[in-house]
Amino acid sequence: MKTLIRSACAIALLLPLTATAKVSADEAQRLKDGGDLTPLGAERAGNADGSIPEWGGGLMSSEAPEKYEGFNTRLYNPWPDDEPIDVITNDNLAEYKALLSPGQIALFKKFDDFEMPLYQTRRRNGAPQFVYDATFENATKATLEANGEALANAIIGVPFPIPGSGREVIWNHKTRFRGMSGSRWNVQAAVTSSGAYNLVKLYEDFKFNYSLKDATPDSLNNVLIYFLQEIREPARLAGQFLLVHETMDQVKEPRRAWLYNPGQRRLRRAPNVGYDNPGTGSDGLRTNDQLDSFNGAMDRYTWKLVGKKEMIIPYNSYELHSDEYEYDDILGRGHINQELTRYEKHRVWVVEAEVRDGTSHIYASRTFYVDEDTWTIVLQDIYDKRGQLWRVHEQHVLASYGVSKQFGEASGLPGTSAEVAYDLLNNRYLAFAMNNEEDEAQEAKFGDDHFTPSNVKRMARR
Predict the structure, then answer these.
(1) Mean residue pLDDT across the chain
(2) Please, what are the domains in the chain?
(3) Which pTM does this prediction carry?
(4) CA 101/CA 383 separation, integer angstroms
């Protein structure tokens, strides 16, 4: 009897974490035309003083600048005449502190010349209609299971457009629609305190299995994302491959990863590709789970949904993405060239993550700021085990436009011009996900067999 009581108590304690409440059909109607939410779950209305406007729908191809040459070509600024309404510096920082994170404020304190050009807010991110339709269906069906590590009964769209927990918000980030499959250059630079750096050029193929237009929960084979990365430069690292199958239910099956080392000429399973192990070519300035702000299993943290607030965040960063600039123009001593950045006021979801008892991570706690329109983690404050602010991570986002051969109108899909991870203690930073001197990301159709260990071996020996 005592054993049964203990078991029942254990099950009761787990229940809040093993399943989440689905919203009612009436509440889901808020996502439809005439409701107060956008089809992806953001507030349609602007704020009280008008500094955040009403959502304007996804940016369409008809609004692209004249020099835009079509899908798979460079994304140019659709609002080239925009000028900053103010530039935040140490001189006027006090006026804006309430709209900044502790990490952003620390960057101003760290660098006398740090600035944030503040522009009018433009809310033109969106997705194709089939993603909206899937999001509406997910709202009344999606659940989290296996202590929040497994997403069930959701596909294609945002799983939790009306979230009730921190885990749901982070799952929305991990599954947000960014297209279906393709390739991109990911150029990164670990910049020293003196401003010196060496470039590492990565070429990455990806397939968002969850986002395929004809996907169903049963068709995924428990794979959320396929990912294949090859180091192209520098020569001393060239030829290294990383293959990842990001699983949907990481309790049922943890992330599958393989690493090919050209020196050993062997492909091996790589269980250490995850959590707080150093990211490829990062010089220890970011963890594996820090790519795309956060990725992978969530079981080492507790996740608290603090709520929503107005903040100044990097947004519509087309200038930073421009091929008119070389990496030397972007990478400076202490921080990137802030004159090329763009910041706007938006509403964000705030999620606090604390290391769970019985687990470990070099980041003892992290605060994530998630854009309501795209579900992208655009900002992150990272603390060490002493509770000291250690790193600040910004994801500079932009809206994609054009017409995809895979899914039709791009409708303002979220994209990235650069991610920057600042180390406040070592006075260094890592800039990555850049492609200013390379080709734009390319849409490509890959079969599952492209992301197999046998194919990686063939590619490595070509």
Answers:
(1) 94
(2) 61-460 (2.50.20.10)
(3) 0.94
(4) 13
